[in-house]
Amino acid sequence: MHTDATLDRATFDRILQFGVERGISDLHFEVGHPPHLRLQGDLLPAKYAALKPEDTEAIAKILLGGDFNTFRETHVERDITYAIENVSRFRATVFWQRGCVGVVLRVIPLTIRSFEQLNLPPGLADICVIRRGLILVSGATGNGKSTTLAAMLQRINQTRRAHIVTIEDPIEFLYPKEKSLFIQREVGSDTKTYKDALRAALRQDPDVIMLGEIRDYETAEICLKGSETGHLVLSAIHTPDAMKTVQRFVGLFPPEDHDAARVRLAESLKATVSLRLLPTADGQSRVPAVEVMRVTRTIQECIRNPEKLNEIPHHMANGRDLYGMQTFDQHLIDLFQQKKVAFEVAKMASTNPEEFQRALTIE
To answer: What SS3 class is residue 278?
Structure first.
C-alpha cells in the first residue's frame, strides 16, 4: 500500500475516509509508526508502512498550507480544522516531537447527532429550555463534551428563534439553517483570544453564547458576567463530576475572591452535565454514563457554603424524580440493568464501588 513516495493529499484523504467509514474517533500520524486509528477507545495500527519524517511533514503542509513555514520556524503547535467533502470534518493538532512533526486528528461528524442517538438522558432537553444562566458540560478529554454541547445547541436551533454565538478553538460542528441564527468565531483566525471574543459577543445581541472551554480566570469571569446580564452561556470544563466542577470553577478566581465567586456561581449556574464514556457490553461501541445536576435552592446553598459542597451528590440522588437529576452511580445501575454495560465496567466507573455494589444487592 505504501510506496517510497512521500504521502500525498489523495493518500492522506483515503486513510481518513477509511477511518471514518469504520467509525473511528481519532487518527494518529507519528514518525516510525504506521498511522494508528482509535476505535471504541482502543488504538489500533493501520496496515501501512511506518511513516517517515517527510510523510508527517507532508501532512502538516496539507493541513497548514501557507502557514507551514511559520510553524517550522516557531515550533508552536497548531489546532486547525480539515474537511473532506461528504465524508467528515476533522479537528487536527499539528506539533513537533523529537525533532519530527506529529499529527493527531479527531473526527467531527458532518451531522450533529440528537440526544437519543448519543444515548444521552432525555432530561437534557429540559435543560435546553433554560433562557439565562450558566450550563457547564464536564468530563475528561475524549468523553463527548463537544458532541454533547453541539447536541444541546442543535436542540435550541430546532426549537426557538435565538441568536447563538459560538467561540471555538478551532470551530468544530457546523449548524444547519433551522430556527436560530449562528455566528461562529474561531480563535486565531476570526479573533485573537477567547477573552476578546467573549467581550465582543456580549455586544453582538446574543441569546446564547457557547464557549469551547473555560481555561482560566478571565474566561470564567466573562462567562459569569454573560450569564448575569441575562444570556444563556454554555461551556466545557475538564472536571470529573458536579462537585469538582464547582471547586474548579471557584478555584480559577484569586483566593481573596473565592467567597464572592461562590455566591455568583450559586446565582448563575443552572445545571452541570458530566460524562464518562464506557465500552458497551457487546464491545461494539461506547455509551456515556451521565451525571446531571440542576441547581435548586438547596444546591445553591451547597455552592455558597464550601462545608456543604460534599452534600451535593446526596441532593442529586434525591432530586431524580422531581428535577431529572442523577448521579453517576444511579445511571451506571440503569446501564448495567439494561445490559448496556458489563458489571465490572460499571463498578470501575462508579464514584463509590462499594456503595454501587450494595445498591445492586438491595435492589
So the answer is: strand
State pLDDT tens for residues 246-305: 999 999 999 999 999 999 999 999 999 999 999 999 988 899 999 999 999 999 999 999
Residue 144 confidence (pLDDT) above 60? yes
**H or E element in which residue 56 lies:** helix 53-64
| The C-alpha cell that represents 141 in the structure block | 478529554
Which phi and psi angles does 182 have, rounded to 5°?
A: -110, 140
Mention every residue, 6+ apart, whose C-beta is less than 8 A from residue 52: 6, 31
Residue 207 one-letter amino acid: D
Length of the chain: 363
Instruction: Note the CATH number of domain 9-108.
Output: 3.30.450.90
Cα–Cα distance between 337 and 182 in angstroms, integer?
Answer: 40
Q: What is the CATH number of domain 123-362?
A: 3.40.50.300
Tell me the CB-side half-sphere exposure of residue 3, using CA atoms within 13 A.
Answer: 5
